[in-house]
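User: I'll paste a sequence; please echo it back and then give the predicted structure.

Assistant: Echoing your sequence first, then the prediction.
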Amino acid sequence: MTDNVFSDLGFDSAEASSLKLRSQLMLAIKKYVKSNHLTQAQAAEIMGVDQPRINKILSGHIELFTIDKLVTMLERAKIHVTLKLAA
């Protein structure tokens, strides 16, 4: 087993890394919505998307979101995303 469940599920390393990063970003959005007691409509307004997009995140539809879009949504919510690279 690795530290990446997507690798363990058989995804190649590039796709597994992307899926892991997207899942971490989506979890940050879920945590933000929950901890701020926001409705999906309120979260959507803050993050600059429509309510169905928030619903898709909260429902775990990882395949519908790019890393770029998730970072933009978090930044609009004043959550700053940083990246750490490892060799």
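DSSP finds five helices and no strands in the chain. The domain at 5-76 is CATH 1.10.260.40 (434 Repressor (Amino-terminal Domain)).
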